[in-house]
Amino acid sequence: MKRVDDFRLQLGRHELVPIIVGGMGVDISTAELALEVARMGGIGHISDAMVQDVSDRRFDTDFVKEKTKLYKHNIDNSDKSVVQFDLGRLAEATKLHVGKTMQAKGGAGMVFINCMEKLTMNSPRDTLQVRLNSALDAGIDGITLSAGLHLGSFGLMADHPRFRDAKLGIIVSSVRALQIFLRKNARLDRLPDYVIVEGPLAGGHLGFGMDWAQYDLATIMTEIAGYLKAEQLDIPLIAAGGIFTGTDAVSFLENGAAAVQVATRFTVANECGLPAKVKQEYFRASEEDIVINTISPTGYPMRMLKSTPAIGSGIRPNCEAYGYLLDGNGNCAYITAYNQQILLHPDGKNISVMDKTCLCTHMRNYNCWTCGSTTYRLKDTTRRLPDGSYQTMSAEHIFRDYLLSTENHVLLPD
After folding, report:
1. Smallest Cα–Cα separation from 120: which of 325, 297, 334, 299?
2. Concatenated DSSP letters for 340-397?
3. For residue 410, is it within any domain?
């Protein structure tokens, strides 16, 4: 019986272990996690979600404090159109986070950054261009384009000297999304180096509607592989979403996937950025505790634990400090939902906003417990301690289990 270790991912001249750990924000996929995966020969992601706040916590910078001070006069104003990011400071934060990570990198693997198009930041094109190019400036090995079609993102990097050198890929959930992306970027004569096909069992934001259960990853992979073959395009496909064991991974690798992307099992790794108490919530979760709702202001359905504190929270929008989901006109679906509740409760007390959530603040505070469909199985990968809590594991332990296990076996920690 084959193991994941019997396969290799070829990206240009790089031969890699075919395991990619997804880029979970905000700093859930930490630099430490990505570096461990790279050290073992795979691909680890960091995320550029709320990169200024991540920099402040990691490097004692003051990006959020300075932005809050600049716009504190607007805190009580429902119009957030004046709240803008300083592009120079945004570039500085991105280069700091990426640069420090790349300086620490060792091993034969690679470190990529996950870049969400839905982080529109009140100036979608300009802020996205700065984030992409600053990551390239700082030496990132590759960029994964996520949370959007990214029809113009290649164009925003086309003049960068590393545009054809760094590995660039995109996450899609349908053959149609990939077709649109390739058609829009054909003039640049630059194909993506890889395509991550994310199915409906993935964690966090989903590339499907609330009819997600009608789709399955294997079928989508087959459709996209057929399209690429018909077009004579040689682009590695990476399967993602619900791949819980090495045996799950092998089933995709044997059927043509170049690699698999995984994340759920790494949420409880020692190197993961989730606080210890939140990791225990993931361990304790049952299958019934996992829900899909539409509270994300991005418009995408989102999978999370139903006990997540973000659900129903009525906190005031904190765009002056963050504002990562403000569209080009300074609007956010949470602001609209919050203001509707203020009209019903003018005193601002005991507000509960069920329609949407302030994703920036709650993700920053680890109060939005997004998760994969297999999170309820995490308790079966570890041991329960005498105090009733569950033992966390090293990223190396989890990685090696994916790499070497067979027959859906999961190696428990010592």
Report:
1. 325
2. HHHHH-TT--S--B-S---HHHHHHTT---B--TTGGGGGGGS-B-TTS-B--B-HHH
3. no
Find out whether 329 and 268 touch, Cβ atoms under 8 Å: no
Number of compact structural domains in the chain: 1
CATH at residue 149: 3.20.20.70
Its domain, for residue 386, covers: 4-404
Q: What residue spans of 144-292 are helical by DSSP H?
A: 153-157, 175-184, 217-230, 246-254, 276-284
Residue 261 forms part of a structural domain: yes
Q: How far apart are CA 357 and CA 316, in angstroms?
A: 10
Six token digits for residue 156: 């925003």
Is 273 inside a domain boundary?
yes
Distance CA 314, CA 76 (A): 15
Asked if residue 411 belongs to a domain, the reply is no
Q: What is the three-class DSSP state of 285?
A: coil
| Residue range 287-335, pLDDT digits in tens | 999 999 999 999 999 999 999 999 999 999 999 999 999 999 999 999 9
